[in-house]
Specification:
- It contains four helices and ten strands.
- The protein is α/β, with parallel strands linked by helices and about 200 residues long.
- Strand 3, helix 2 and strand 4 form a beta-alpha-beta unit.
- The radius of gyration is 16 Å and the shape is globular.
- The two termini are about 15 Å apart.
């Protein structure tokens, strides 16, 4: 069965964005560190690079390695939409969970007005589906989908945000994950893969 994988960047205090949705405060390191980190991450997960930037980072024709489907909340989708990009991950099946977004925003994007748990259960149960489902964000959607979350890929950046959008924003529901692997980069970022116990 396909897995739901939450792949996201977080601050040391567990924020995926600032209070206004800012994400430009995550430190990347110097130019050489940033390039090495980006090359490594883009080679590992090329499908997580938005379609508009794939050519610039050399993954335009790279096949999807881990994911063939992306699920995101409106807050995650909004920055692309505000820049006139209605299909940010055209190389993936795209689902946006929103009760306010118009369903005809883009023919390549399926708007899910309610019940994201049923959507994810349906996607996970698809027969013949080969790759996993990427939960791209945000925190409230992650809180709702926690019962179906199989794996976490957490990029931890060496910065404290102080406030902002939490990585998981939901009811108190302690859920244990085991660390499967951890990679540290010279720019201070740590990638941790965790699997549900």
């Amino acid at each position: 069965m396909r897995k739901l994988v939450y792949y996201v960047g977080v601050s040391l205090d567990g924020r995926i964005a600032g209070p206004g949705g800012e994400f430009d405060f995550f430190p990347q390191g110097d130019e050489q560190q940033t390039a090495a980190y980006s090359i490594w991450m883009n080679a590992l997960y090329p499908e997580t690079v938005p379609t508009a930037y794939r050519a610039a980072v050399g993954v335009e024709d790279a096949p999807n390695r881990r994911f063939d489907t992306v699920v995101m909340g409106l807050g995650t989708y909004r920055p692309a939409l505000d820049n006139g990009i209605t299909s940010p991950y055209a190389h993936l099946r795209q689902y946006v969970v929103s009760s306010t977004l118009k369903p005809d925003t883009d023919p390549a994007v399926t708007v899910v007005p309610s019940d994201p748990l049923s959507l994810v259960r349906e996607l996970k149960g698809e027969v013949g589906a080969g790759l996993d489902i990427w939960l791209c964000g945000g925190g409230r959607l992650a809180g709702t989908l926690l019962p179906e979350m199989d794996e976490l890929l957490i990029k931890t950046y060496p910065v404290v945000a102080g406030t902002g959008i939490p990585v998981v924003d939901g009811a108190f529901d302690p859920t244990v994950f085991d660390v499967a692997e951890r990679t540290a980069f010279p720019n201070g970022v740590t990638l941790t893969r965790l699997t549900r116990r």
